Amino acid sequence: MKVRVYVSLKNGVLDPQGRAIHHAIEGLGFSGVSDVRAGRLIELEVDETVTDAALEEMAQKLLANLVIENYRIERV
Amino acid sequence: MRSAVITFPGSNCDRDMAVAVEQVCGGEVHRVWHGDAALPEGLDFIALPGGFSYGDYLRSGAMAARSPIMRAVIEAANRGVKVLGVCNGFQVLTEAGLLPGVLMRNAGIRFVCREVKLVVENNTSAFTHRYFKGQTITIPVAHHDGNFFADDATLDRLEGEGRVAFRYGEEVNGSARNIAGVLNEGGNVLGMMPHPERFIEAAHGGIDGRALFEGVTRALLSA
Description:
The complex is a heterodimer of chains A (76) and B (223). Chain A is of the alpha+beta class.
């Protein structure tokens, strides 16, 4: 079974990478994009025994840094 | 004095750090591999060096902070052993939860590699008591992820408790309140982005990093 963990920066945390991507999008001539935030998608292949609690713990202990990031877990 | 310098896969300032500790602090300097489960007995001082541990995968310092040796380092830090993290070492200390905040990508996106002015904010810790409060020193930086971030409450607490060790005297990487180095609550753990081990003899172009290592030795002698 596949699990997706989406990690994104919390609101209010400056995202220099997102800003650079935004700048590049504008450089390509696209208009109407008001903001870009870059995050990370981590895919895990897990068996049925891996509990939601274990996935939460993985996200909190390693996959996301809760000082600056939020995460969302999705079983696919 | 017994010291250890930890090497992670991708550390590249570990040898410079070991030389600085050997030359300025003296005593025994042990080189310790990240996969080791235990530290040498009776350590007084542990240094986490700069570099790009695990290629900065996931987040700078994130993987190294979960390596086997870090459990022993955390345990030693909690016992009061002096721990210095420089550059990637600072990132590892924040990821390991020994220091607050996080080091994010430089606000200007670019890697910054140059000498910078630092203002000594705290001169009472084991690491900084050989400097004057308010003294401006010059130390080199070389990093991509040096932008110190913490929420306002944490920053206020750090300032109020005198735990900001060094502040940049110029704009370098977008760090909150220009913070370049912070201490833990007990004052025995220091993390800083600038590299004091690169400025310990005249041939390096400056010697302002020397007093930090002298300070550690003196603090241990007077303890």
